[in-house]
Design brief:
- It is a single chain.
- With about 400 residues, this protein is of the alpha/beta class.
- The protein has 16 helices and 13 strands.
- The two termini are about 35 Å apart.
Length: about 400
């Protein structure tokens, strides 16, 4: 079967996480992604470890887990585009590309003739995606943007943590990752539009915009009534009981979201009296009396071990689950059945969640070594002698 983006070529001038996460999605869908890296420095995340991948002798390589997480299905081209001859090489590759993507601070590429208006002259129907911290306009447009900074600025951190605790960042770089996903979505939409009109376009993606879009019902609640959603730890602002509860031997998740589920829970634990109690009788009442309800459910859950609740609540149609470590998650039978840990030779990676029946994702290339495919890529445009000369001048 053919992959969804077969024959689509991506000129990838991104590094760190948001851009590489986007282009990995495109690569998984079959696009030919050329990852442009500085010949000496490469993508800075190559060195963001430990841990690092081990070679056959057990020694650390120069590829960190961070880099490996978002750079499969790409070819690495070492190229110094800040030099005139490097720009000429870039222009030749852009002429053959469908997508140009970069995540430099706005303004950086101006002097190299690689902003949208310049690239459009090289390839008139190019789809150009620019990822930045704050977007192309506004008072912060020229500022660098970092995931942690964006999590705070967006209001996301005000929602994470215990009610009396400090605001917390999400345990992963959610601002970068969301921007990467939205970038891929925008590129796919632009590809479809181009197939209808023959025209390319400019895509402006900001970490701040992407993160605030993830605020979803929390943001809508504020816009609706002007009240600030409180930090609730593992609780839900609109549903009770819904959270992590402590059993005899550790915590489990109980997420009761409907009236019938609450009724089933009360019948199972022999607490039918709660169904007629004014503080428990409806979800609205339970939300208004959150502390009392959570305390009562905690008392019930503490009477039995985790295995008892996980087995029996599931049978009663009550949403329940464990709080796994990563080791436990990757050993879970459902995770194994879905093939979420995928092998690329001796390297294990997290599989793409995109499961297309007619054009499944591909896993043809492990994350590349720095400059691994430089000659392979350039031999389509220039001679071996010219490649040798560019190497001597440290252009590639």
């Amino acid at each position: 079967m053919s992959s969804a983006l077969k024959n689509i070529k991506v000129f990838d001038m991104t590094r760190i996480l948001a851009g590489p996460f986007c282009t990995q999605i495109l690569g998984d869908l079959g696009a030919d992604v050329i990852k442009v890296e500085h010949p000496k420095m490469g993508d800075v995340t190559r060195s963001w470890g430990p841990p690092f991948e081990k070679d056959k002798t057990g020694k650390d390589t120069s590829e960190s887990a961070y880099y490996l997480s978002c750079n499969r299905n790409k070819r690495s081209l070492s190229l110094d585009f800040t030099k005139p001859e490097g720009i000429e090489v870039a222009r030749k590759l852009i002429q053959e590309s469908d997508i140009f993507i970069e995540n430099f601070k706005p303004g950086f590429l101006d002097c190299y003739g690689l902003i949208y208006k310049d690239v459009k002259k090289i390839k008139s129907d190019i789809i150009y995606c620019s990822i930045s911290g704050f977007g192309q306009n506004g008072p912060y447009a020229r500022r660098p943007g970092y995931d942690f900074q964006i999590q705070g600025l967006s209001g996301l951190m005000s929602l994470i943590g215990e009610p009396e605790g400090v605001p917390l960042r999400a345990g992963i770089s959610i601002a970068d990752i969301s921007a990467g996903i939205y970038s891929a979505l925008g590129i796919l939409a632009a590809l479809y539009q181009r197939s209808q009109t023959g025209e390319g376009q400019f895509i402006d993606i900001a970490l701040l915009d992407s993160t605030m879009s993830l605020l979803s019902f929390a943001a809508e609640s504020y816009l609706l009534d002007g009240n600030l959603p409180p930090r609730l730890g593992n609780g839900h602002p609109n549903i009770v009981p819904y959270g992590a509860f402590e059993a005899q031997d550790g915590f489990i998740i109980v997420a009761i979201g409907t009236a019938s589920q609450f009724e089933n829970f009360c019948h199972f634990v022999g607490r039918e009296d709660l169904l007629s109690h004014p503080h428990f009788a409806s979800n609205e009442a339970r939300v208004r009396n959150r502390e009392e309800v959570v305390d009562e459910v905690n008392k019930i859950i503490r009477t039995q071990p985790k295995s008892y609740w996980l087995e029996n609540l599931e049978k009663k149609g009550i949403p329940v689950g464990p709080i796994n470590t990563l080791a436990e998650a990757f050993q879970d039978p459902q995770v194994n059945a879905r093939g979420i840990a995928k092998s690329l030779g001796e390297l294990s990676v997290v599989a793409s969640p995109l499961r297309l029946s007619g054009s499944p994702g591909v896993y043809t290339r492990r994350p590349p070594r720095l400059g691994e495919h430089t000659e392979e890529i350039l031999l389509n445009f220039i001679s071996k002698e010219e490649i040798k000369r560019l190497k001597e001048k440290e252009i590639i």
